[in-house]
Specification:
single chain, mainly alpha, 2 helices
Amino acid sequence: MPTPASAALDDRARTQAEFVANGCLAAGDVPFAVLPTDARPTWPEREAAAGEHRASMVA
């Protein structure tokens, strides 16, 4: 899934996503990003990214 660093977010949304991620890290949790609807990948994009990730783990 996109992260604040890799998603096409505007400055305001990126700042908000980084704030949430930094808060999670400070609490010892795994950060995640809640993206605006227009920044979310489509299902085929998500599946392609997951497939690439799986392939990189095998290699």
